[in-house]
Amino acid sequence: MTSLGIQNISRNKYYNWIIKNLFSSWTNSLITIVALIFLYEIGSFFLNWAVFSADFRVNFNGEAIVDRTYCSKNIMPGEYGACWAIIYARWNQFMYGLYPIEEAWRVNFVYALLPLAIIGILFDKIPFRKYFIYFTFIFPFIAYFMLYGGPGLSVVGTNKWGGLLVTLFLGVTGIGLAFPLSIILALGRRSKMPIIKSLCVVFIEFIRGVPLITLLFTANVMLPLFLPDGVNPDNLLRALVAVTLFQSAYMAEAIRGGLQAIPKGQIEAAQSLGLNYWQTTRKIILPQALKIAIPPIVNTCIGLFKDTSLVLIIGLFDLLGIGRAALADMTWTKLYYEVYVFISLVFFLFCFGMSRYSLYLEKKLKTDNS
Amino acid sequence: MQTSLIRKIIFDEKSRSLLVQTLVIGLFAVFIYLIVQQTAYNLEKRGISSGFDFLNMSAGYDISIRLIPFTSEDTHLRAYFVGLLNTLLIAICGCFLATILGFLVGIIRLSTNWLFRNIAYVYVEFTRNVPVLLQIILYYSILLHLPKTKQAIPIFENFFLSNRGLFSPSPIFKDGFSIVAWSFVLAIVFTFFLKKSLKKKQEVSGKQYPIFLINSAIIIFTPIFVYYIMGRPLDFELPVLKGFNFKGGMVIKPEFIGMLLGLSIYTAAFISETVRSGIISVSKGQREASQALGLKSNLVMRLIVIPQALRVIIPPLTSQYLNLTKNSSLGIAIGYADLVHGFGGISLNQTGRAIEIMLMVMLTYLTISLTISVFMNIYNKSVQFKGNA
Q1: To which CATH superfamily is domain A162-369 assigned?
Q2: B160 - beta bridge partners?
Q3: What is the pLDDT of residues B14-42, one digit of tens each?
Q4: Distance (Å) from the alpha carbon of B181 to chain A's nearest alpha carbon
Q5: Of B39, B112, B332, Cβ closest to residue A28
């Protein structure tokens, strides 16, 4: 009897939910129906294109697809959807660029270590966090040695790097280098010394006022002009300089927001305990300010990660650049949608992941404070 | 004695800050001096001349998308202005479209209909987590794979969409059209004063006037009335398919449409989020109180919710406009002839004056950014709380 009653209530619950959220009024019902039709049309079109009538590695005849003429949609136009064989054929380039394929294990090794290097920063309640943080600081050296080469490993020039490797390299290194710089800039902007303050303000506002592409151009064309003869950074390094400066300005603004949120009493209390400026900043202000600033910092990181795609304009082959190169190849040309949808999906996974993380943090911080 | 002086300098806050600042500015000056020195040396060694005299030299390249006449014999300076106008054009059109789309999506996100608001949510997540450059390139390649001009898709009979862009009728202004345009401007000015006086009357007498209806009627019907009086001084030249191309009318290039779609669809996702959070920020009590006073739901929205939401929306909206304007520099990827593509790209390659050109381009963007900030700040001040400090 009781179980029946509960069942009734729960059925009512679903029924009520549907009525309340989808059919609460005439206009609402109409909107629901239109939305359903819309979803059905879009969904069936996309699924049909991407999955049901798509080629993966073989076409409808069962032949392996080695170039675009084997794609079902090019044999029988109008009846078949996507031809994903281009992704399989170009997989190595999407992942490593022109990195020598017999050395690709080195890149895979770094890819595998990357999560271990950042997990300690992202989550504060994991076991052995201290050691993960230590690893975070060792990781750049390991990654540099593995990727570029050195004693015992053959040297692979950065002109051979490409695809996801360049995207991740610029994103992760840019964020990593920009972080300390942005703390200095944010503190400088709030400094009481007028000269230091104005230098920081001018730098931040200048960088934020111009598009990234002009900074990339400047770094690409003008950096060699600024430097002495022997020093000639390669293209990837030039892009990295531009990306780092760009990111540091945006991150500094996010951190400044965090600094502003710290009540003045905290500073005064620290000073009354006899702490000097650096002690106050390092032990009292920054830990609190950075905690508050993490969600906006993550948002700037998402922005930067997307913006790394701009380096294709100065001739680097990031994920998007490699995709365009694949399309320029006569054997695969015209498979635009397949390539762009694939790259969008990769970017989406990374950026959506980051934004979920930022949401998770926001929620966590809220409960911590209440 | 001497140690005490050093002690005094280091431990006295004022003198220490003076010392630190002198050091910093000294180091900065040395840094700048070294760079300038090195650059001058490098330029001389590579035989690159400098100066702004190249601005008066003939550009030697053509720009297909332009608002003012331009041929390859025109100067680089003119190329700069062509690019600047194109940048402003895409920025203004993009901001306009992104705002409309963003407000629409933001309001849909708050719909009581679960399905409807989640479709908007999926749109927002998918567009803002994919690089804008990728979106621009994607939309552009869709546009390039439209049917050829011979099989162009007709829209509303007189517009034709093809892989060469959107062919549309072009207006031909005959004499007397300027009077119609002026009557439109005058109507707007008039309604502005009418609104003020009617508001005053309402405050005195308590009687409500349908101000919005009256004013829209004036703004719409005055120009139409003048238009017929002047003997319809506006004609349209229709695009007609002749051979392989359209003759007559005007064409909106796929580069422009691709940029416009990419920038506005991407930015609209961000704007919708600011709109949503702005509307949420208005407390429920405000709504309930105004309903209790007997206001109708559209009045609640217009008089209570939106004015308060705007206070929250305007600052982030400003930064979205700035982002859109800066992102318009991505036109170079698909060949939209904006400032960076024409002047910053081709002129730079032809003259080799990298420093001068990049400086001009950056300063231009800085000026645009500052102008937008100033105007939006003025607008922001006008919607903020007044009176209570």
Answers
A1: MetI-like (1.10.3720.10)
A2: B154, B167
A3: 888 888 889 999 999 999 998 888 888 88
A4: 36
A5: B112
